[in-house]
Amino acid sequence: MTTHILAKALPAEVVELTAEQMALSALRSEIDSIDDQILELFERRLAIAAQVGKAKDAPTGPHTKLRPDREQAVLARLTAKAEPENKEAVSALWREIVGWGLARQGRLQVHVYAPIDGARAMDAARTRFGAAADIRVVYDAQTALTHAAEGNGVSVLSVSGDDAWWIGLRKEWSMLSVFEGFGPNDTPTSLAVGKIDPPALPTGRRVIVTAGGDAGDGSGARRWGLNTHHGWTLALTDADLGVGDVEGCVGAII
User: Fold this and answer.
1) 246/210 Cα distance (integer angstroms)
2) What sections of 130-253 are H helices per DSSP?
């Protein structure tokens, strides 16, 4: 005779969370809730950015969709409100957010010409324009300038080499303006150029291309020399100049 023994079911083991685990779970739940709010706000911002793109219409002619003055003002406002230890993170995050907003108006095409220290110029362009931008290397300045002059994108060009492409900003590339500098604050090693609406240039030091040295014009305005070539000088100045005037102003950087 076979005897069947029925095993009594044992209750599932109860796992008790420690106070630390419960606290961590609560924090993660709070982060999930914040992430949901951020996602909702980000998608709302993208939708509004697309509407802004349709509303943009530069009054003085066709220009790129970039508004460096607006970006400068918004970034200054946000970093001023941020806690000191968060300012760098806020700045980097906002650059990405605005980059994706611009992408809703058409993906920004950025050409980089930097025969010397190209990796640094690429990193600077990526930081400035964000992951949404289509950034590519080109191997001559004329290609980069032509791309910017078409008005659908911008270019970043090195000023530390022997190619004095910047002289052309006074001549055949006068439709372009410098709107950003990358590298040391007083002596950037590369500049961003594009068909920027002049009123949309950032508030800051003017970029000038002049015949002669960088000693100044006697007005007392400070100058920072960036490069020279056959009697021409590329420099920064804190003088209040307008783009295209007789002083050789070709743009502005923060």
Assistant:
1) 9
2) 141-149
